[in-house]
Amino acid sequence: MHEVERLRRMRLGEQLPAPVAVDVSVHTDPRGLDSFAESSDKEALKNSQTETTDKGEGSN
Fold first, then answer.
1. Taking a C-beta distance cutoff of 8 angstroms, is the pair 9, 16 a contact?
2. Could you give the CA distance from residue 17 to residue 54 in angstroms, rounded to a whole number?
3. Is the dihedral of CA 25, 49, 38, 57 positive or negative?
4. Rounded CA separation 44/41 (Å)
5. Is the pLDDT of residue 57 over 70?
6. Which of 5, 6, 33, 56 is most buried when burial is the number of CB atoms within 10 A of its CB?
7. Rg, the chain, Cα only
8. How far apart are CA 8 and CA 11, in angstroms?
9. How far apart are CA 27 and CA 33, in angstroms?
10. CA 47/CA 25 separation, integer angstroms
11. Does the pTM of the predicted model rise above 0.90?
12. Distance between CA atoms of 60 and 21, rounded to whole angstroms?
């Protein structure tokens, strides 16, 4: 939710949960992806809410 929309809704009396902080990693070198699974963030990735799909299924 955009911050301006959040403030507007709060002024109107809506009770909203606190914003969530998200860390995003962008890899441009495909060779670096091999070591990503062994990083210290492994537990965070295991509990993430991201769903993965096979490229051949349902992506149309």
1. yes
2. 33
3. negative
4. 5
5. no
6. 6
7. 18
8. 5
9. 7
10. 16
11. no
12. 31
CA distances from 51 to 7, 23, 44, 48 (A): 30, 17, 14, 8
**What pLDDT does residue 1 have?**
65
- Provide the token pair at 6: 């959040």
Residue carrying structure tokens 């992806």: 33
CB-CB contact of 9 with 17 (8 Å) = no
DSSP-assigned letters across all residues of the chain:
--HHHHHHHHHTT---PPP----------GGGHHHHTTSTTHHHHHT-------TTSS--
User: With contact defined as beta carbons under 8 Å apart, do 33 and 27 qualify?
Assistant: yes
